[in-house]
Amino acid sequence: MINPESILSFEEYKNQISADPTSIEFALALDKIEELQSQRDEFEFPTIESSGGTKSIDGDLTDKCTYLCGHSLGLMPKRVRKNIAEELDSWSKEGVHAHTSKRYGRPWVSFEDAVVPNMEKIVGGIPGEVTIMSSLTVNMHLLFCPFYNPTPTRNKVLMEAKAFPSDDYAVVSNLKMRGVDPETAVIRMEPREGEFLLRNEDIFKIIEEQGHEIALIWLPGIQYYTGQLFDIEKITKAGHDKGIMVGWDLAHAAGNVPLKLHDWNVDFAVWCTYKYMNSCGGSVGGAFVHSKYATDFERNRLVGWWAHKLDTRFVMDNKMDLIEGIDGFRISNQNVLSSTAVAASLDVFAKTSMEALRARSKVLTAYVEFLLKAMPNTSKNVSIMTSSNPEERGAHLSLTFADGLIDHIFQLMNEHGVVADIRRPNCIRVAPAPLYNNFEDIYKFVRILNMCDFTPNN
Ligand SMILES: Cc1ncc(COP(=O)(O)O)c(C=O)c1O
After folding, report:
1. Which fold has domain 82-349?
2. Ligand 1 centroid to 230 CA: how many Å?
């Protein structure tokens, strides 16, 4: 296992390596450094051709594409094929007995046991705080139920103005269902005029001034559009100091940056597993409820039979006996095939640690930033919306371009097998995923971007 302490900063590597830092030799030298090795071989990569590309500068169309889209959908771990084939085998050979079969070590009735210990390490939860269930937005609704408790004088939700649409819809629809008017009860924080990122001091000011009316703070760990990493610990504490529940959407943070949800005293959090956790589209979601609520059985909750203790669940006497902790917030039996993908992916995470991944990730992202600023064309034509402070961002950088250029730039990237994503009117998001991207990927991406014609209206 790689010791995170052995990983230097990008600047230190730059000083150590004799090659020109804008050359391919420099990228290849970084890729050879022992402590910077990735888990790349654990993943299946689309080729340039299968990702829709038609051109290769100095290789061939069957080469791996340059995949920088792990913030949207992670690549498929090779183990997923094997593990899913095993579960299909179990289903085929054992039918209903697959629920209790130990044939492949993952009895379906307690499938979460194959996932949760690894997941706890990734998000910093202790046993009983973390589970897999439903999906991200569904889990928002499920956990707003116990943790958003409006009263006539304290019913507001503090969130960001540019929240991911699903978060906005979930908050608004949940408030309506509770008889609270979202028009007056949702406080949407905007960055200052001319800025993209929310400042901590502005968040703390609102909490200080309006905290007595706020029932819930609902924020993303990392903002999907700007890549801003929020100070989860400090914001949670500021909320608690004013008696506010604090919940987090960790879609872009889980598996990207180390989290310490238990130590940070976060009330609840939800995330998806298909981005940095490399499971399939729409895969089962992750959820956290702090252990301080483990036996708070009086709290409102929407549950089903999977919240009932396992040893008496099948007695079917319709007398709910809730599991302590997060599993007591569940509804349905596990989606086996989807959870299998998560289990396989988290086995790859278990080969390393979030601290080592984060240290490597900082070098990767700093290299993207360095190359964009060092190459002649990109240095003049690409702006980075994401913070330049590594402590205020994860893996992903949001790049912006002059008006009217983005479709042409994105097309050129796609033609050359660079997979990222576009957020019109003028943003392209790129993320070197800490588990599988290497420095050569970044070199290839910036070289292609540097070939673009940035003349307006071309
Ligand atoms: C920040 C954020 N919140 C919510 C969602 C919605 O996720 P789901 O469709 O899994 O509910 C996404 C999806 O990408 C997201 O990025």
Report:
1. Aspartate Aminotransferase; domain 2 (3.40.640)
2. 17
Q: Residues 386, 398: contact at Cβ < 8 Å?
A: yes
Cα 38 to chain centroid distance, Å, stands at 18
Q: Measured in angstroms, how far is the CA atom of residue 165 from the centroid of ligand 1?
A: 8
The secondary structure of residue 69, as a DSSP letter, is: B
Task: Please give the C-alpha separations between residue 277 and each of 108, 182, 422, 432, in angstroms, as whole numbers.
Answer: 21, 33, 21, 14
pLDDT tens digits for 365-391?
Answer: 999 999 999 999 999 999 999 999 999
Span 269-296, pLDDT tens digits: 999 999 999 999 999 999 999 999 999 9
Residue 9 phi, psi dihedral angles, 5° rounding: -85, 165
State which CATH number among 3.30.460.10, 3.40.50.300, 1.10.3720.10, 3.90.1150.10 fits the domain covering 4-67+353-450: 3.90.1150.10
Ligand 1 center to residue 136 CA distance, Å? 6
Q: Is 333 annotated as a binding residue?
A: yes
Q: How far apart are CA 154 and CA 148, in angstroms?
A: 10
376 is in an annotated binding site: no
CB of 13 closer than 6 angstroms to any ligand 1 atom:
no
Residue nearest to atom 3 of ligand 1 (CA): 164
Check the annotation: does 306 bind a ligand: no
| Pairwise CA distance, residues 220 & 192, whole Å | 18
Is the minimum distance from the CB of 166 to ligand 1 under 6 angstroms?
A: yes
Kindly state if the Cβ of 74 falls inside 6 Å of ligand 1.
Answer: no
Residue-averaged pLDDT of the chain:
97
Where do runs of H (alpha helix) occur along 77-129?
79-94, 116-123
457 pLDDT band, cuts 50/70/90, is: low
Q: How far apart are CA 200 and CA 238, in angstroms?
A: 11
| Separation of CA 272 and ligand 1 centre (Å) | 7
Would you state the structure tokens that stand for residue 434, as one six-digit string?
Answer: 């800490």
Give the position of tokens 């906005």: 168
| CA 139 to ligand 1: nearest atom | 11
Helix (H) / strand (E) element for 357: namely helix 354-374
* Contact yes or no for 353/121 (Cβ under 8 A): yes
From-to residues of CATH 3.90.1150.10 in the chain = 4-67+353-450
Boundaries of CATH 3.40.640.10 in the chain? Answer: 82-349
Residue 458 pLDDT > 70: no
